[in-house]
Structures are given as C-alpha cells and as structure tokens.
C-alpha cells in the first residue's frame, strides 16, 4: 500500500514529515501542479478564443445540430479573402454580385453555376452537413470550383462570418437556399429545422439589414406551405395556415419573418415556393432518386396511396426550369430601401409559385424510371403515412409568368432521362450497390 493511501481528504490536517527528501518532492510536486494548472488555463484560453463566435476562425455555437461536419471549418486570412473577392467579382456589364447560401446543395449548385456562366459574381456558403451523403456535396463543390465559384465552409448562423463576407464584398443580391429540407426527417431531428430554417434565416436577415448597401434577397420557401389546402391548382392567394409538417411550418414561418424584415427595415424580399424539384445532381432523400437506386438494386420501393385508394401525385419540376425562375426573380428584384438599419420607403415583397403545372401520379414516375433503367420495379403499395407528406401538389404559376415570363418547359419523361443519364455516369459501375 502506498503512503498516499493514508492521506486524509482534507488538506492541512495531515501532519507531515519535514525531511529534506520531502521538501524536494514537495517543491517538485508544486512545480508540477503549477505547470499542470497553467497548461489547463492556457488550453482553456485557447479553446475559448478559438471557438468564440467573434474570432476569425469560426465554428457555429455548440447547440448547432448540423455541426457534425464542421469541426475543421475555418475562415479568414489574406488568401481566403482573396478567394472570396475573386469568386464574387462581376464579369459582365450590369452584373450582380450574389451570395448563394446552400451553394453545395442541389438547387444551389445549379443556380450558382448559371449565375457564374452569365457573368455575375458568385460566392457560395454551405455547412456541408451530413443530412445526406456529404461526398455528393463535395463533388458539387468541386464542379463549382472548376467554374470559378468558391464555397465558403460555414453556417448561416455564424453572424461574424456573414458580416465578414459583407465587409469584403458589397453583395447586390442574396440567393438564400440553405435550409434543412425534407418532410419526414423533421420527426427525427426537429431542431435542425429550427436551426437552419428559422434561426439561420433570421441571422442572415440581421446581417443583410445592417449591410450598406442592403442586398435584395430571393429565398426558397416551399410548396409544402399549402399543407392541407384542397383547392387546386395552388395559387399564392390560397390559405397557407395548415402546414402538415414541421418543415412546412418553418417555411411558413420564414414567409412571415420575411414580411417583418421587409416592413421594418426595407429589405427587398422574394420568396419562391418550389414544387418537387428533380434532376441531375439531385437530392438522394427524394423519391425519384432513391427509387432509381432501389430499382437498380432489385429492392422493393414504397408507393403510397391516398385515402380510399386515391392517387398520390406531384407537380415535378425540372431543375433547369427552377433555375430560370430563380434568375427571373433576381433580375426583377428591386433594390432594398433601408440603410443604417432603417427603412426609407416601402420595399418590394413577393411570393411566387415555381412549378411545372402538370401533376404526375407517382406510379407514372415509377413506370418512366422502369423504362429508362430497363428494370422492373418491385412495387410495395401502402397507405400514405401521416408523417408530413401531402397527397397532391399542383402549381398555378400565372403570377411568375406575368412578372418575369416564367414557364416550365421540361416534361417529366425528358427530365428523368437527363437525371438517369447523370445518375448512371456519376455512380458508374457502383450503381447497383450505391448506398
Ligand atoms: N428540392 C426541392 O424539391 C425543394 C422543394 C421546395 C423547397 N426547396 C427548398 O429549396 C432550397 C434548396 O433545396 P435543395 O433541394 O437544394 O436542398 P439541399 O439540401 O440539397 O441544399 C441545401 C444546402 O444547404 C446547406 N445548409 C443547410 N443548413 C445550413 C446552414 N445552417 N448553414 C449553411 N448551409 C446550410 C446544406 O448543407 C445543403 O447543401 C431549400 O431551402 C429547400 O427547402 C427545395
């Protein structure tokens, strides 16, 4: 048994033997303790400043539910600022400088590359969270990088980072696409919807309202705001107060938040209600995508039926049509009217449906995929579960048509052909076993 076993728990009550050996050990042990506490203190200081939101090497706050892939995200420094500036540089007459949030996402990638191609300056921001396979987001990032678009790795809740970006670039527009998407996942991780779709949107608007000049903002709402609305086709004037999922509720909240920032601060805001977007580089959590994967793997796929064997149908909209709608909205967005956080006069506030206007039953989607893949699907017909999905969506797009000539031109057969061609080339031989 060592002598330490006899040490009482209350220091000072132990009568010590003051031998020279003991003094030396005591001196050594004091130095050791001092060293230990100093290193702990220095480590604490380092962690505090390194992770502090105002540092130039930032991570989002620890409550961030989507930070799993952010541990190594850093920003700042001369080289980084140069990349930001170069990416956002306008290369055409009357071009815009656009901050695209969610740029590594499906829609974000397509919109960013379309803007860049026509000569606008584009800077992306994305937190590369792992809601779906982040390697797909990295592949999209690589694609954009080849086209000259830099994606800053960061979270839209990181106000210090957003402010820094506006300090470097006087963005004329923000295309806000970052969000926690997906209807069913909300039952698993509700906090991620509040984090990205509500808190993140507010952080972004706070920075935009203080920016000088204030940018015009176009952002993605969703057709899901129509929820349990039964009047078809869905028009912007229809009721949107019956969301069927938390996702829909956060998008609806976004529309109300947009109204507030427009009303108080004069921010020009345009919300876009996308209807089931599909296409190359799409989202693996969406039915057309995982049906393709599962059909190729020989796995059965769930086909939902509405009440009384009713058809479930979607107004599937091809990505190129959505991109046209985004660009049309940016091009017709008026300037914000505030400065120094104050509104000078009323600013533009709009909401548009962007859909295809021809709903297709999900069973028909599967038949098209079967033909394109030359594989028979194993259909598992089941009742539509009550987890947020709605039986039917159908867009009335006359408002967007009137304002900027919006018209979808790709039918589902043509669009899926392009998707399948991309899918097979992207996943190559791995297609039958891909995730
Ligand atoms: N694809 C559709 O069918 C559809 C339909 C209606 C609405 N929308 C909306 O359109 C937008 C784009 O959708 P998508 O299909 O491209 O989705 P996506 O998930 O592919 O893209 C969203 C991107 O935002 C990023 N992101 C999420 N939270 C973030 C945060 N807090 N900070 C920084 N980045 C963050 C993600 O990493 C992702 O890359 C979303 O707002 C979505 O809700 C999409």
Could you please describe the fold and organization of this structure?
- Residues 1-64 and 430-435 have low confidence and may be disordered.
- This protein is globular.
- Strands 3-2-1-4-5-6-13 form a seven-stranded parallel sheet, sandwiched between helices. A two-stranded parallel sheet has the order 7-10. A two-stranded parallel sheet has the order 8-15.
- The protein is built from twelve helices and 15 strands.
- Helices cover 41% and strands 14% of the residues.
- Helix 3 (106-117) links the parallel strand 1 and strand 2 (121-126).
- The longest helix is centred in the first third of the chain and has 32 residues, at 20-51.
- Helix 3 (106-117) packs across helix 9 and helix 6 runs parallel beside helix 7 (246-265).
- The chain has a domain at 67-275 and 317-355 and 394-408: NAD(P)-binding Rossmann-like Domain (Rossmann fold, 3-Layer(aba) Sandwich).
- With 435 residues, it is of the alpha/beta class.
- The site of nicotinamide-adenine-dinucleotide has 29 residues, from helix 3, strand 2 and helix 6.
- Nicotinamide-adenine-dinucleotide binds at residues 66, 102, 104-108, 125-129, 137, 155-157, 177-181, 196, 200, 220, 222, 274, 276-277, 283.
- Residues 98-334 form the NAD-dependent epimerase/dehydratase domain.
- This is UDP-glucuronate 4-epimerase.
């Amino acid at each position: 048994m060592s002598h330490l076993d006899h040490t009482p728990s209350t220091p000072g009550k132990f009568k010590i033997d003051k031998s020279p050996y003991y003094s030396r050990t005591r001196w050594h042990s004091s130095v050791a303790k001092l060293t230990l506490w100093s290193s702990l203190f220095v480590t604490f200081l380092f962690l505090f400043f390194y992770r502090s939101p105002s540092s130039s090497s930032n991570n989002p706050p620890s409550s961030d539910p989507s930070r799993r892939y952010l541990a190594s995200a850093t920003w700042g420094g001369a080289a980084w600022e140069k990349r930001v500036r170069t990416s956002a540089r306008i290369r055409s007459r009357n071009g815009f400088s656009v901050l695209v949030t969610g740029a590594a996402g499906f829609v974000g990638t397509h919109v960013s590359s379309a803007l860049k191609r026509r000569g606008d300056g584009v800077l992306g921001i994305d937190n590369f969270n792992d809601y779906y396979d982040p390697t797909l987001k990295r592949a999209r990032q690589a694609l954009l990088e080849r086209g000259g678009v830099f994606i800053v790795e960061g979270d839209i809740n990181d106000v210090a980072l957003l402010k820094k970006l506006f300090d470097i670039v006087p963005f004329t527009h923000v295309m806000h696409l970052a969000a926690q998407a997906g209807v069913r996942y909300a039952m698993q991780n509700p906090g991620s919807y509040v984090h990205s779709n509500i808190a993140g949107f507010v952080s972004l608007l706070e920075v935009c309202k203080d920016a000088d000049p204030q940018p015009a903002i176009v952002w993605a709402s969703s057709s899901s705001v129509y929820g349990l609305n039964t009047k078809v086709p869905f028009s912007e004037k229809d009721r949107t107060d019956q969301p069927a999922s938390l996702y829909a509720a956060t998008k609806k909240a976004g529309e109300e938040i947009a109204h507030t920032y427009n009303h108080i601060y004069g921010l020009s805001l345009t919300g876009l209600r996308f209807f089931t977007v599909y296409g190359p580089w799409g989202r693996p959590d969406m039915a057309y995508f995982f049906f393709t994967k599962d059909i190729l793997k020989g796995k059965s796929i769930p086909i939902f039926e509405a009440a009384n064997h009713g058809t479930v149908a979607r107004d599937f909209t091809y990505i190129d049509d959505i991109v046209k709608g985004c660009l049309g909205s940016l091009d017709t967005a008026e300037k914000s009217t505030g400065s120094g956080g104050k509104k000078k006069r009323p600013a533009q506030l709009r909401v548009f449906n962007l859909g295809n206007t021809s709903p297709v039953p999900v069973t028909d989607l599967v038949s098209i995929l079967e033909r394109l893949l030359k594989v028979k699907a194993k259909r598992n017909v089941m009742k539509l579960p009550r987890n947020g999905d709605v039986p039917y969506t159908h867009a009335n797009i006359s408002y967007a048509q009137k304002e900027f000539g919006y018209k979808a031109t790709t039918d589902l057969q043509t669009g899926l052909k392009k998707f399948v061609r991309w899918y097979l080339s992207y996943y190559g031989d791995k297609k039958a076993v891909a995730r």
